[in-house]
Each structure stands twice: as C-alpha cells, then as structure tokens.
Amino acid sequence: MTKKQFLTKLNASLKRLPSSERQDILQDMEEYFEIGIEEGKTEEQISASLGSPHQIAKELAAAYRVEKVGETATASNILRAVWAVIGLGFFNLVIVLGPFVALAGFIIAGWIVSVSFVASPILVLINVSIHPQIFEPFDLFFSIGLAGLGLFIAIGMFFATRAITNGFVRYLKYNVGLVKGGMKHVQY
C-alpha cells in the first residue's frame, strides 16, 4: 500500500474525530513515512510495518475518547469512550461492557434509593392529603428518618460516583494501552 493509499484509508477511518485531531494524526503519519523513506525503506514497507489503517484509527479514536473522559467525565463522554474501547476487539466486549454495566447499575440504583428516601416525607404528606383518615404519626416520623438516611446515601453516592468514574477511566486507559501495546505500529 502506498503512502497516499494508507493516508486516505486512515483519514476515512478517522472521520468521527474532530478535524484538528485528524490533521495532527495524518501529519504525524506523513512524518513517519518521510523518516522511513530517508532510512531507505519503501512506502509499502513502511505501511506494512504500521499495520492496518482501520485498526490504527480504532486505537487512536479509543485513546482520544478516553483522553476526553479524563478531561471532562460527562455521561456522553464516558459512553463514547466505552464504545470506542469495545470497538478495539471482540474480547473488549466482555472485558469492558460487563464491568461498565455492573458499575452503571450500582450507581443508578444508589441514586434512585437516595432520591426516593429523600422524597419519602413528601410522598407521606401527599398520601395524608388524599386519605386523611389513615394518617399515622409513625409514618411521618419514619419517612423523616428515611429522608435523613437518603441524604447520607446521596453524599456517599456522590463520592462513590466520582471514585467509580475515575477508576473506570483508568481501567479504560489501561485497556487501550494493553491493546496498543499488543499491536504492531508506531506509538504516540
């Protein structure tokens, strides 16, 4: 594969990345080709040593998405990073998606419990306004206790969400590094 063919395929595979990032990558690859030619290698040898442009694009996209999550850990950035890392190979479907679903389920369940506990006094008061004859002071005091417990759970979930997100981002970075280390191409 010639330099032009390689760069065209790589550019097409990087279409989901921002154009500035794509241009940086293509410029780096052009420099790699220039260095290889100066060393006496042919364009075909250089492109063969780099590997598949499609696989390189997958790895670079995953690294970019994981880097974006490190900068701003929003839900959409995390999902994009997870899908990019899963796209690196079938093995990652089990290794990344399984822990992601489990951790996301834990976080969502914790926040739902917290919000429902905090809202319980309001729900008791709504119930009393609809059915005043069934009012029990125990229900009100118990719901106030649940609200306090819900606030403690919310505080814990705040720190747990942050810690789990940071840990999962490190796990994604490790996974991308592991896949990149096992592939035969230039490291950035």
Describe this structure in words.
The structure is a single chain. Mean pLDDT is 84; it is low at 183-188. α1 packs antiparallel against α2 (19-38) and α5 crosses α7 (137-182). The protein contains seven helices and no strands. The protein is mainly α and 188 residues long. It has a domain at 85-182. Pfam families: HAAS. This is DUF1700 domain-containing protein. Keywords: Membrane, Transmembrane, Transmembrane helix. The chain crosses the membrane at residues 81-102, 108-128, 140-160.
Explain the layout of strands and helices:
Layout: H1 3-13, H2 19-38, H3 43-50, H4 53-71, H5 75-86, H6 90-130, H7 137-182
Protein name: DUF1700 domain-containing protein
Transmembrane segments: 81-102, 108-128, 140-160
Keywords: Membrane, Transmembrane, Transmembrane helix
Instruction: Name the assembly state.
Output: single chain
Shape label: rod-shaped
Number-wise, the strands total 0
N-to-C SSE string, H for helix and E for strand: HHHHHHH
Q: Tell me the Rg in angstroms.
A: 26 Å
Tell me the distance between the termini. Answer: 22 Å
Q: What is the overall number of helices? A: 7
Largest sheet: none
Helix content: over 70%
What average pLDDT do the residues reach? Answer: 84
| Helix-and-strand structural type | mainly alpha
Task: List its traits.
188 residues, mainly alpha, disordered C terminus, membrane, transmembrane, transmembrane helix, DUF1700 domain-containing protein
In short:
This protein has 188 residues and is an all-alpha fold. The protein has helices at 3-13, 19-38, 43-50, 53-71, 75-86, 90-130, 137-182.
